[in-house]
Amino acid sequence: MVGTKIDEYAAQPTSTAMAAALADAPDFWFELPPGFMEFDLEENAEARMLRMTEAADLLFADATPEQKFSLVVSGEYILQTMIVAGAEHVSSCFLRMSDGELSQGTLCVLIERPENGPEHQDRRGTAKRTAVQWRELYPDAEVGLVMLPYGIAALCTRDQDLYVPGALFGIEDPVPTTVRQLQLCVPLQTGPGTALFVFTTENIGHWPGYLELLSSIMKSVSAEEPQREDTPGGGEPVGGEMEKQS
What we know:
Elements: E1 2-4, H1 15-23, E2 28-30, E3 36-38, H2 45-59, H3 65-84, E4 89-96, E5 102-112, H4 123-137, E6 142-148, E7 151-164, E8 175-187, E9 194-201, H5 207-220, E10 242-244
Parallel strand pairs: 1-2
Antiparallel strand pairs: 3-4, 4-5, 5-9, 6-7, 6-10, 7-8, 8-9
Helix pairs in contact: 2-3
């Protein structure tokens, strides 16, 4: 279970409700940077696409209808694949990058827990094994280990060739596209299992800008619920440097 930072926090549970509240406590928290919008995974797809279209119209009034349509359709397709995969969190960003171009990306978080295994895990060993597996599966990918405030994690960046169903564009044949995907596998502090962060975008030319946003998300992963911005001590955690996995 994951939690994200929100503007208004719920009231603290009373002592009698604390035990029940702890049972449903998130495994970790993280903060979304400005420009990201979290989705209700139970929302009707048609209603969601209409809402995304309204958001694109509002944010990018000078964009062509074709540009806005492509942003919404590709975002919805990626969202649907993540929901099918069992994502617990999905958010999307509509951004105007430094070059003035429109850009869209999608973030999802999945929690993977082993059905059997020890009560505690070797978190460094889990991260290293994941990095080795990714290097074997994706020989052309960039794979390494990164030390976050929450703990060590495996990191993988690769390009994928996909076919978006043509029905989304009102045509029969599938539409080819290439996306860049960053995967971050974070062994959990709460017990055996991992959190898998996956960010995907078709706008590969804007990747350097996305890396800055993704770095802020990675550094914000914490076992503690984020403090309100007006509370003392509410600074951003500082992350470590990448360690290459060979």
